[in-house]
Amino acid sequence: MIAMQCSLARRILCCLVFCLFFTTVQAQTEESVGYGFQIAGARINLPESVRSFYNSPGFGFGAHLDVPLSPLVSISIAGDYGSFILNADEYRRSLSSFFSQAVVSGGRLSIFSLVCAAKYRPYESSVVPYLVSGLGLASLSASDVTVLAGPPSDPRSSRAKKANIPTGTKGILSFGGGLEIVIPWAVFVEVKYQLVFTEGESSSFVPVSLGITF
Predict the structure, then answer these.
(1) DSSP per-residue string spanning 187-202
(2) Residue 192 to residue 208: CA distance in whole angstroms
(3) Can you name the residues that pair with 103 across neighbouring β-strands?
(4) For the chain, which terminal residue's Cβ has fewer other Cβ atoms within 10 angstroms, N or C?
């Protein structure tokens, strides 16, 4: 446990050093830091044992900084929150026959991520595609699942449990691309594949974002 905490602390420290370094580089140029916001819809792919519980799209939102290093290359620092709702029907099917008509609630999966990424534009234009790739941390958490079935006198009629999904703070690898339109602010559409290094089997999610940078 101590070794895992030390490893996590090193990763967080590296992320902070990265942010500080590139912000310092930017401060010595004439380029200004951009900032903005984004909203997103996303699909998530969890380990097989719980994959079907979260088979519906989630939603999310976030904020970002864009630190230019040159006209074609910048560093993007983005913080995002995503939420996914438990599929009650799929969860109910995983239980015993006693709970076949049970009322299932809770189990919301929340993901907060912080990613530092390099962003490359192949040319300067008011309409330009770009590629983006980076590393960061993702914090996963889930609320308890409450299952209600049968008469109150039956000891099995009510129970609360975790959905047995991966939780905690994990490393994340992110890469993708988008299209940016400057009018005069930069409006963008972006698709990314984000790999989360959960225990045993890795998880992933694919957010499609719409955002603006001032």
Answers:
(1) EEEEEEEEEE--SSS-
(2) 7
(3) 148
(4) N
Range 170-194 burial, b when 16+ CB lie within 10 A, else e: bbbbbebebebeeeeebebebebeb
- What's the pTM value of the predicted model, to 2 decimals? 0.79
- Tens digit of each residue's pLDDT (9 = 90 or more) over 150-198: 665 565 556 555 556 778 899 999 999 999 999 889 999 999 999 999 8
Cα distance between residue 15 and residue 208, in whole Å: 24
Q: For residues 33-42, b (16+ Cβ closer than 10 Å) or e, as one string?
A: ebebebebeb
Residues 6+ apart with CB under 8 A from 27: none
Mean predicted confidence (pLDDT) in 40-68: 92
Give first-to-last CA distance, the chain, whole Å.
Answer: 43
Is 102 strand, coil or helix?
A: coil
Q: Tell me the C-alpha distance between 78 and 211, whole Å.
A: 12
